[in-house]
Amino acid sequence: MEIGIDKIGFYTPNTYVDMVKLAEARNVDPAKYTIGIGQEKMAVAPVTQDAVTLAANAALQILDEEDLEKIDLVIFGTESGIDNSKAGAVYVHDLLGIQPHARAIEVKQACYGATAGIQMAKGHIALNPESRVLVLGTDISRYGIGTAGEVTQGAGAVAMVISTKPRILVLENESAYLTSEVMDFWRPIYSETAFVDGKYSNEQYIAFFLNVWEQYKAKYGATLADFEAICFHLPYTKMGMKALREILDQGSQADRERLVAHYQTSTSYNKIVGNIYTGSLYLSLLSLLELSDDLKAGDKIGLFSYGSGAVGEFFAGRLQEGFREALAIAEHKALFADRKELTVEEYEAVFSQTLPTDGSTVTLDIAADPAVICVAGMEDNKRLYINKTNE
Q1: Interhelix angle for 51-60 vs 88-96, to 10°?
Q2: Which parts of the sequence bind (3S)-3-hydroxy-3-methylglutaryl-CoA (predicted)?
Q3: Was 269 annotated as part of a binding site?
Q4: Per-domain residue ranges of the chain
Q5: Is 374 a catalytic residue?
Q6: Annotated catalytic residue: which of 93, 106, 111, 231?
């Protein structure tokens, strides 16, 4: 039975800040951001967007009536959850109008959450071949204004429909994974922003990649020549290249040139969105699939997922005949084209806007947000969501 990604959608807020201008405002050489980190723009989420609405907007773009009837499991991967009890998946299920006889859960393991969701989805579909599973990777990366991590902030969500006979990518069953208790990145329940040991986290990312890659090779006899491309979790776009360079000498010159070229293509969307945690690997995959002009059916794509704390996994999939026709290329092109640049001052003002935590009532200006699904306000400690198409 072939199981994999049948549809993939993406959403990011319509506002961003330019990294050159941010660097200048922070008295930093812009090359440190654009070359050293590899980022060009950073998506900025208004107060009317959170992990729930980002996920719902990403899924809204790709789901049709048949999906709404056949999806019986919604998996919401995030580290930006809005409730310690209720799963964000429940809100998304309601906002999208998915049939009621479905499971809806939230999973958490830093940036690994969406990958965990995909692996769970594969097991569910193996037992229920007629089912479809909606897997969401949705996050808002926040470190704080003027902090060392500010340059690796971002916001967005990737939504994937997992099914049998997938039109985009069949996911292979071969996989290698690793868990180790490390404190490279964390966000305590009481904190609105994350904490990170940057140098240590980079070291752990590379160490995990090398471990699971060597596992994968030993278990399945794999070589670099088997892969047309390898996509990475990208907290910033230079991170994946640091890991890839560690294994390039294992292949031929042709392998090196091919993998590096496709890696560069796979970072294009991430460069102009920033870090979206659980969705970053799949935004990289989306960038590769939508912007490469030489991929073909049967090509094997490697995927490295890493979630700090830490869990890592290397797995792969094969592209399907006609995969391009199943992509929402035009919609994503329009999404990026319609974005508005904020000044650094405007970005700081938006970043500082937060929802009340004292139970007070607030009504938000959703007319200023072009997204279909928004946070409309708060009342009695409850977030009020709205799907404008239902109004």
Answers
A1: 40
A2: 29, 143, 242, 275
A3: no
A4: 3-168+327-390, 170-322
A5: no
A6: 111
Specify whether 233 is catalytic. yes
Domains 3-168+327-390 and 170-322 share a fold: yes
Q: Is 143 annotated as a binding residue?
A: yes
Q: What is the pLDDT along the chain (391 residues), one digit of tens a residue?
A: 999 999 999 999 999 999 999 999 999 999 999 999 999 999 999 999 999 999 999 999 999 999 999 999 999 999 999 999 999 999 999 999 999 999 999 999 999 999 999 999 999 999 999 999 999 999 999 999 999 999 999 999 999 999 999 999 999 999 999 999 999 999 999 998 889 999 999 999 999 999 999 999 999 999 999 999 999 999 999 999 999 999 999 999 999 999 999 999 999 999 999 999 999 999 999 999 999 999 999 999 999 999 999 999 999 999 999 999 999 999 999 999 999 999 999 999 999 999 999 999 999 999 999 999 999 999 999 999 999 998 7
Which residues does 302 contact at the CB level (< 8 Å), separation at least 6?
227, 229, 230, 231, 314, 315, 316
Q: How many residues does the chain have?
A: 391
Fold designation for 3-168+327-390: Peroxisomal Thiolase; Chain A, domain 1 (3.40.47)
Reading the block at residue 215, the tokens are 């596992």
Residue 275 marked in a binding site: yes
